[in-house]
Amino acid sequence: MICYFIRKGLPFFFLFTLLFAENNYPIILVHGFMGWGSNEMSGYKYWGGENDYEAYLRQEGFEVFTTSVGPVSSNWDRAVELFYQIKGGQVDYGQNHSEKYGLIQKPPEKIFAGLYPQWDKEHPIHIIGHSMGGQTARMLQYLLENVIYQDEEELIPETSVIMSKIHEGWIRSITSISTPHDGTTLSNIITKGIPFLQDIIGIAAVVGNNFYDFDLQQWGFDKQEEETWAAYYRRMREHKAWGTKNMCAWDISIEGARELNTIAPANSNIYYFSFSTANTRLDSSSGFHVPNETMSLILRANARAMGRNKAYWADGSATDSTWFQNDGIVNTVSQYGPTSGLNGADPIAEYRLDELLIPGQWYHIKTINMDHKSPLGHGLEVEEDIKEMLKFLDRHCRLLSSLPIHKE
Q: Most buried of 49, 101, 177, 403, CB within 10 angstroms?
């Protein structure tokens, strides 16, 4: 049973936030590595599984949108796609970025009407990202608050809507759930095998073309009409993209995460919240972490490896035993907030109900004793646990709605 929720005796401050919302900004849900959109996986939702989180929150009075970005793409590509899905328009990855990695700069398949076309500094958004989705939200923040240039001398700005000028104040808050802010020591395993892909390809071959979309048209990865799923998968595995920094494996590595943390520090006008997950315990005889009995069987090998292995940054420094605790995909210590940037760590504080919230710093709300994807409703079978997760999500969205409206 889930025992970490607050059931009674809520302080007055928290009750106040539940009753009096200061903003009605929409909430954007961003999936992580190997995630999917609302129209994929035969209706099984990334956000909620059999219980649609978006639909539930809409019933509770929130304006919520579920997005679908490249499940194995880089945070740059995902953030660009996220922008155009929300605002609308032709996806444009930027001339310099596209030439560097050999991308199709403006894939004709990626034109969006816009989930929230009025999005601007007068109509900002809250973003909730799971896993890599939290990194993607921060990359979007970086692209919004900087002018991106076509040339190394920074003389010629990109011409795209998102990169040609600064869009300050468009994001009111970012919430991360199980996000590898400092990377994950599992990333090298993903690089070597990409084991999840083969399983999905096999299922998709049976179910049909709409079951899952890798959204890799910028790489020329679009599945051909007569192409088998096995051939499609083989072509992806052999593509040069996997050897570049413009794919997910680099971004979720500890060195790739350090790059993002260096260029995208906390913005003094944005509120930040994080939830971490953990489902391992310390084995006193070995000093390593081992999976709990409640951990999903398919994640236990990952958890054991992460519970004892180190990873190394480019300067030769390594992770230590504080990285052993994990949720089967991401090291728990990496989920609190960004700390590894070359310019220093973002401010991170433990969230307290009775304290005034300050923008520009991270509030770690709770470590949840669950696997990596259990907060999304995957693997939850007890009805009470599912109801508590829905209440938990509802409370956090009410907290977001209580944040003050941004004023210049």
A: 177
